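Progress against Task 2.4 (sequence-to-structure conversion) is shown through the following example record, which the project officer requested during the mid-term review.
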Amino acid sequence: MTDRSNTNPSQFGRLTCGSLRIDQAGESVALRGWVHRRRDLGGLIFIDLRDRYGLTQVVFNPQIAPDAHELASGVRPEYVLKVGGTVRPRPEGTINPKLATGEIEVEGLALEVLNESKTPPFELNQEGEVDEGVRLRHRYLDLRRSRLQRNIVLRHDVVAAMRDFLIARDFLEIETPNLIKSTPEGARDFLVPSSGFPGNFYALPQSPQQLKQLLMVAGFDRYFQVARCFRDEPQRADRQPEFTQLDIEMSFVEPDEVMGLSENLFLELSRRFSTKRIRETPFPRLTYAQAMDRFGNDRPDLRFGIELRDVSNALTGTSFNAFAQTLSGGGQVKAIVVPGAADYSRREIDGLTELAKQSGAKGMATLAVRADEVRGPIAKFLSPSELDALTTGIGANTGDLVLAVADTPQVVAKSLSALRLEIGNRLGLIDPNVFAYCWVYEFPLLEWNEEEGRWEATHNPFSGYLEEDAPLLDTDPGAVRAKQYDLVLNGYELGGGSVRNHRRADQERLFALMGYPANELAGRFGALLDALDYGAPPHGGVAMGIDRVVMLLADEENIREVIAFPKNQRGLDLMFGAPDLVVPSQLDELGLRLDPDKQTTIR
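Structure tokens generated for the chain above:
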């Protein structure tokens, strides 16, 4: 893995705290940095001077430089110093092989305190558990810590590698505006009032979706952008209200070409910036139907096995009431095998049952496979053939435990997917040193919104669909498969895209299915629809979440650890105190009035 935190920039004619080497012994140098650590060892004072390039040990001897030594005796961690001195080899037995500068030290001859520092609210020279609120409130200090500095440097390197990869393949980096029109793309927009046109609003882009399609119409056949995107939606560990994505669009392509380009990019990133082994190349490709059937979700973690097995057909005609009622109502019965867990205690099984219930299941059935028999609360209600189907029929061996859920397909998938991941973690089946990529494609184009009584796009309203499914638009829209594809890594969706509709009639047909009145289309999507009338080429693209990509390359569990100034889990900026109230005069300028019943003061 590339680590540029200790990059030696001396080739550019400047010294840093990470640049000195043994071949510079005898040279006079001047260094600037922060006090990382200070040690007083019986007269000699040792200061580890730090900047983002590394550490250099400086030694102050009262016999050699009494004034500098006296000043050094008063410095504290995080003081900013300028040090003058001579580079010399470290004494025998004191070399530090963990430091790039570990063979040398600087004999301090002159010292200037450029700035003092209050005692930081948490330790900066070592890792440790610190309340995240304190860290984010003092993020400028948090960012001095070595792990955060490595993460930010890694982020820079990853983005630079993305740019180099695409530019070498004839892509143009083109910026698109951040003040656009509000359009429905799946999440709430952040709105920006216009002082020039009171009562009117810009929206911050959820993505440059329409803009990159317009660039294809304009003839820029290979576009990319490191794009800032904004979505007003609930937060979680791998989500922020503002985020960065690698946005790509190409003309005259089919899904295979977009997936192939993306796969090559991520192979290069993984090999360059991580030591983890890539589980399989080319990346496995699963249709949406296959992913849901085998793993219960559309972003499966392929680092371990344990697949969902459908036993509905084998249980047709069962006399066990819970299974029979589910199957007669159009539901299904699926199960997973937990290896070596036949001796799980009642408490352990109750915990797994509760996890299934949290995902919507009414309950969970268990069968323990013993050498002499199959045991479990439901065993006596099942025939020998049904017991066999639920055990050896799905690969269970002696000593294994079977977990089965009977419910609607959606609930079965969600609950068994959660159980599968829990078992993988609990049994240590997930190899932390593996990157398991896969593609999931052919998503449903549309899904039915029961609350609003209309079809809506599963991803975005501009995705094309498989030509052979076109007749289903009139008879069974929910069965139409989109030219949509997502890249998944270790259970995380890195991003996705689609080949778009490039003919106006096709796009308007989908808008009609999604319930957009014809007389509103010009106001909502006029620019794009008009552009499709002027020789729009076939085109498609992909957008990858840079924050999430860097999080996984850095082996972090939260994207806030790879963003310089993130919001907290509630979407608040604790450092600046945002969002915040504004003075009434600002609202007056915009022609806005607040509802006092909905106004919130954030503390």
